């Protein structure tokens, strides 16, 4: 079982670092699918809690590689991370008490809209653009979604940084990875205080993620920007459909 958990973390780390995600989009559904095969039941809240450790590991490993490559906008990351940290803490508290069906539906619609905008801009030349005043509230929302649904704030952060803050896609992914590591610390502490964090599972996921994220950060530089946008758009659509299926299939 632990080898399977490490494998989940490895896959999440590679995809997380390449696309600037926390890896929760892989970790949460994968744990819910894999662990029952080994006779180990896990609730959605427990999977989200373990996912927060995966997000932290992606942030540590991926951001370190991106800092060496000079892709991280550290000043922007430090300025925006308080919004995601506060949002993440709020989302984590809500995750302990709030049915997430309505929130997941709204979030899925937002992901589809973000994917549409990214696909529409596939042929747009990557140049600096003026930042929108909506960046701060959008990043706060990213933090809330990260804490509440455990799927990583990168699904919101990367489109926000690219579409609203005018940041080129590679730097948006790198900076999102940097911010996520800071946000995940608070999220994990809230879930730990709530008694939902399985340390053994979290350690296995973190081990796989640390290795995978380092490899993913190296691979990202070899992928053209247009393909990164396409891959990210497909992932946003997949995540949105996954959320809608999870929360509405048994309605």
TrEMBL record:
Protein name, UniProt field: Probable membrane transporter protein
Family that this chain belongs to: Belongs to the 4-toluene sulfonate uptake permease (TSUP) (TC 2.A.102) family.
Key words of the record: Cell membrane, Membrane, Transmembrane, Transmembrane helix
Topology in membrane: Multi-pass membrane protein
Top-level taxon of origin: Bacteria
Compartments, as annotated in UniProt: Cell membrane; Membrane
Pfam hit, one: TauE
TM segment ranges: 44-67, 79-98, 104-122, 134-152, 172-191, 230-248
Principal subcellular localization: membrane
